[in-house]
Amino acid sequence: MARSALLNVMVQAAIKAGKSLARDFGEVQNLQVSVKGPSDFVSQADLKAEKIVHDELMKARPTYGFLGEEGDEEKGTDGAHRWIVDPLDGTTNFLHGIPQFAVSIGLERHGEMVAGVIFNPATDELFTAEKGGGAFLNDRRIRVAARRVLSDCVIGCGVPHLGRGNHGKFLVELRHVMGEVAGVRRFGAAALDLAYVAAGRLDGFWETGLSPWDMAAGLILIREAGGFVSDFKGGNDMLADGSVAAGNELIHKQLLEVANRPIPTR
Length: 266
Hints:
The chain is of the alpha+beta class and 266 residues long.
């Protein structure tokens, strides 16, 4: 596949940060046995990865804005472009030695996601997409799954954890969805969940309470893989609203309808 200069910059930044995380991941697995635990170490790994991504991207495009999970937003001087970065999506998985985490880099132009890179260094899987250029996994073209009814589908989701999100509302959504599908999966890294929808591994995905960096790269991946993605109201305000639903055209529509059913009265 041919990549633009911008996408190459993003790929190089993600791989460089991913190599750093891979080294730290081995240390985290060793730290599991310590009394203190690996939490402090992981936060440093996170910060180090974001610095690597920030430095690589800003060296290539110093006028672009930058929004990362670990630091304050930088506005940039060009006014049109913004990098949206999660240097370690799936921090809890990383913390527990579970190899389901990723570096996620999205590029926004005039409010629209135009390129995305998601890299899992534990599996060496690199997902890339650019507006009009398709979506790829390690240079192989990917497409969303073609299943047409929810009863045949495996659907991914996010589960609100301690101190975050509306647990009661999620349980209602889960009750509705699990009654209509072949299976529900929760992997613990939203960026990779969206990449899995793009690759056809998951038929759909829904989650609320997300931050822009959790989904920025995944949005363009799904669209370039032929999928549909929206906020929970069916609109295009995912980054501001913090909610997302995704799938092919039919499954996206069905998933939105089922997950938004009202709370049962009896």
